[in-house]
Each structure stands twice: as C-alpha cells, then as structure tokens.
Amino acid sequence: MKNQLTLPFLLLTLLSLHAALTTAGGCRHIPFTNIYYCGVVHNKSPYTMRYTLTEHEKTETKNTPNLCAFWNWSGGITEPAHKETVWCKQEPLGPGGSKGGGSKHVDVDGFTFADRPYLWGKRFDVITKGVWTQIHSGQSVTCTGGGGTKGDMPVCKLD
After folding, report:
1. Strand 40-44's sheet: what is its strand order?
2. What is the pTM of this model?
3. 123 confidence band (pLDDT: 50, 70, 90)
4. What CA–CA distances, in Å, run from 5 to 8, 9, 13, 15, 89?
5. How far is CA 50 from CA 4, 88, 111, in A?
6. Per-residue pLDDT for 108 more than 70?
7. H helices of the chain, where?
8. Which of 2, 52, 75, 139 could staple 88 via S-S, CB 3.0–4.6 A?
C-alpha cells in the first residue's frame, strides 16, 4: 500500500513543481529555492539607453512616450519575429549602468536607444533608433560603444 501511494504522490508533486514556476516582478522562480531567472541589461556604451520592466497588451494609440515598438515581439532573436507596439513604462539607463538580475528579483523585458540606431546580435543587425528589442527572463544583454565599419553605434549582444 505504501508503494502504491508513493508513485501518484511523486507524480503530483512533480507536476505541481512544474506548474509552480512563478513570476516575481516578471522573473521566473524555481519553487522551493532562492533561484530567480531575470532579464538583465548592462549599458557599457557612452550613450543613454532606455529599458522597460513592463510590457503589456497591444494598444491602438501610437503617439505616447509609454509605448514600445518591438521588432521581435514573439521573442525571436532575429527576424522573422513579428513586430508589435505595446504599452510599457520606459526608464533611462545611463552609461555604465546595469538593471535587472535574479539577486534583485528585477526583470528587464526590453531595451532601446531612443536617439540613435544600434547593432544587435552576432550578425550586427541594424535596429532603428527607438525600436525595442525584447529579452526574456534569464537573458543578459551587454551594450558597448560602437565604431568600426558600421559607424559609432552601440553594439548589443546576449552575454
């Protein structure tokens, strides 16, 4: 009888743990641990970037500073992820600043450079100024100064 109850209990416990991946400020939390996976941005460029901790449903109003136009809304790192404009709260992050991380339980959802284009990823795709890149919980992005053949644009890559 003891063994008959153990297997269903174990399966139920594993399913509960899987379903219990919760969010704390958008971070993914591993239940019964102090482990949080949160999005992080590091601005090592000489320019001020903008980041958001919040992203919400699509909106029809396109002329407000609280909107973010993402090029990779479905979370793709490169095209053909679809574009989406959503409500967000934009915050500045100056040169040398960092935001987010599991130890702080702060999840950055996206970033942009509002006043200049920037380069993204291993292929150095040019992202138009003011267009947002979405990042997921557990991803860390570092943006450095530009230079080289692409001009003086910030270069942003997953760590």
Report:
1. 98-100, 40-44, 140-144, 155-158, 118-120, 125-127
2. 0.76
3. confident
4. 6, 6, 12, 16, 49
5. 56, 11, 5
6. yes
7. 2-19
8. 52
